[in-house]
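Figure S7 source data.
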Amino acid sequence: MSDGFELVRVRNGAWGIRSLAYDEVCHPGVGPRAEAEALYVRGLDLPRRFGAHAVSGDSRDEFVVWDIGLGGGANAAAVIDAAAASGPGLRVVSFDRSVGQLEFALRHDAELACLGALAGPAARLIEDGEVLFQHGNAAVRWTRVLGDFTVLVALQEPPPWPAPHAILFDPHSPIANPEMWTLPLFQALHGRLDPNRPCGLATYSRSTAIRASLLLAGFVVGAGGSTGAKEETTLAANRLEWVGRPLDARWLERARRSRAAEPWTTPPFGGRPLSDATWECLRNQPQFRITPG
Ligand SMILES: C[S@@+](CC[C@H](N)C(=O)[O-])C[C@H]1O[C@@H](n2cnc3c(N)ncnc32)[C@H](O)[C@@H]1O
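Tokens for the predicted S-adenosylmethionine complex:
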């Protein structure tokens, strides 16, 4: 144990990191690397999207990933490794309150097996705030942004980071970290997208209230794949075609019956059925008008 984190064995026997402050293990099912690859790299179809981006013409046009919850860097590292083969210019913007978990992960990479060849760039990221390096065919620019993401995402002025093509949405769980799962946060996040830039968001939660929040914020929302431990996750996007399995009328009916589907706005957060106003908004979302139920 050190500095607020400890190494633990997760369910499949791999090593993971427990945050003592949140009393929660990150990637508790299959460990950080396997979950990062299943949920974010394959879930967002990144190898194919990187390949398509690399041949799309303008080499100055970076593929931009927002890594929300840098933590121990497992998700960012898996994405950077995935770009090495196809080699678009890759910009990763990692958000967190602190680099404490990344420092811990660097000291324990022998057990965690996440950073590997990216340990050097990760150490420079901690020190300098930004690191530029070549990783296989990919020219990578990795930036860290320290602060409260709920504040950063809602600032009035345009952010200095480009709009994302992909979002790795990985805070702690809604119970432990509720301020990161509110409707206002998802509305602010959607407001940061460039409508002309297709963007996909993957997250491990499949909660009805979280999916309802993403829908009300303006995302198209669908079921994401399994991570090995979780049967289903969530994939959202600003394009219907980016979501393989959009939520449909059956999901909408289940949400209507649920006792905990109302999006969270202000504390106390918790389970409430949909209000009439939310139900009206939800059932009028474009994806339910065109998805057969
Ligand atoms: C599950 S861990 C992330 C694991 C990480 N993605 C990885 O691959 O190792 C969640 C992270 O979200 C960060 N976090 C939680 N609330 C936050 C907030 N309001 N602003 C910024 N970061 C936050 C925590 O500090 C923590 O590092």
